[in-house]
Amino acid sequence: MSVRRPNPPHPRHPGPRPLPLHLAVHAWTLLTSQAALPFWKNGLLPWKPSLAEAAAELGRSLDAAGPDGYERLGDALLTEALARHEDFLKGVQAYRRHPYRRTLPAPPALWAEGTTRLLDYRQPDRGGGPAVLVVPSLVNRAYVLDLRAGRSLMRDMAARGMAPFLVDWDAPGDAEKAFTLTDYVARLERAFDAVAAETGRRPALLGYCMGGMLALALAQRRAEAVSALVLLATPWDFHAGGRAAQGRLMGALAGPLGGIVDALGEVPVDVLQTLFAGLDPSLVVRKFSAFGRLPPRSARARDFVALEEWANDGVPLAGPVARECLLGWYGGNDPAQGRWRIAGRPVRPGEVASPALVVAPARDRIVPPQSVKPLAMEIPGARPMATAGGHVGMLLGQRAKTEVYEKIAKWLVLSAVQ
């Protein structure tokens, strides 16, 4: 009689995605340090000017150590490489087995169309303040704006008496795989109308990252209906901050990305994650190695897992939208060049008529401040607001409540009474 073996336990949290890529890049980075040693020994390894003197001093020390000095250094490099890779693996395992689970109750849906829902965060008898339609990115789950208790922009606005509604795009279905950005803005417009009809008020728009681009386009199209516009870490000049090279890279990737879109009708999550990883290839290793040294039950460990669970829970990008965004925005810098169009009409920040608040995080690696600032300059009368956080830390950091949530809420309330 055969004995059926139990299936191994599945990790609680998938990721970091794509894990094979991160493992391979880290191993390659570590091993090339040892591979470069013979070139250095023979004087063939170039050094940055800032490191040349330190390298020369180390070389003199190795020469003085005798004939086996470089061999001993090679052994030390290998030992250190293995230790660092082990730290990374321990961090990944600790993350994947961590007991954290997101348990916030889901709010009711006011409206739905296709795979999109409009989540109603109003609190009973406390929704008399400004109505706010919140628009997240298309490539990440909407719950980054409602991550957990104490780290939720949506619930904070509701607690302050506002009427906040969150667009939950979800993953593209069969219909959405054929969507262009024009189709998504049209759907957003219908969600906007649902909020206006439900509340009897002119809603404000709050857009985050890519969602800010969609909110901007809608604010231009419905200039008289939008009461106020808040843009959080919203890019505009995609080649600012020394990123013109990414345009050339996207041009080189146009063929492979186009082949993926033609075959699948979308760009899968792991492909998108690979592109984001290219902004800082060692970031994941640094984060998870540090996480492995945290006490598992600490608040910092819980916060890390909550954020990474969201970051690894992405959604694919519809094929036509991928062409517009990856090739048009990142590749051609179409928005800043006046070439981005919705329903044939160029999207122009200068045509936004509502009061606007433009928030630029100072430590944002995904959307550098230089990419955001042109919006504050082009939208008439827009108020710029700098914050010390990063792209996500701005919303979920320890000081997000006082430095971001509270300031946005006060600005929205003041805009509503003007």
In summary, what is this structure?
This protein is of the alpha/beta class. Helices cover 48% and strands 12% of the residues.
How do the helices and strands line up, and which of them pair or pack?
Layout: H1 19-35, H2 37-41, H3 49-64, H4 69-96, E1 109-113, E2 116-120, E3 131-135, H5 153-159, E4 163-168, H6 181-199, E5 204-208, H7 210-221, E6 229-232, H8 244-264, E7 266-267, H9 269-277, H10 283-291, H11 299-311, E8 317-318, H12 319-331, E9 341-342, E10 345-346, E11 356-361, H13 369-378, E12 383-387, H14 393-396, H15 400-417
Parallel strand pairs: 3-4, 3-5, 5-6, 6-11, 11-12
Antiparallel strand pairs: 1-2, 2-4, 7-8, 9-10
Helix pairs in contact: 1-4, 4-10, 6-7, 8-12
> What would you report as the Rg, rounded to the nearest angstrom?
24 Å
Principal-axes geometry comes out as globular
The proportion of residues in beta strands is 5-15%
**Physical arrangement of strands within the biggest beta sheet:** 1-2-4-3-5-6-11-12
Helical content (DSSP H or I, runs of 4+): 40-55%
Number of helices: 15
Average residue pLDDT: 91
> How far apart are the first and last residues' alpha carbons, in Å?
80 Å
- Relevant CATH superfamily of the largest domain: Alpha/Beta hydrolase fold, catalytic domain
Content-based structural category: alpha/beta
Number of self-contained structural domains: 2
- Major sheet, described briefly? 8 strands, mixed
The H/E string reads: HHHHEEEHEHEHEHEHHHEHEEEHEHH
**What are the segments in which pLDDT stays under 50 over at least 5 consecutive residues?**
1-10
CATH level-3 fold name of the largest domain = Rossmann fold
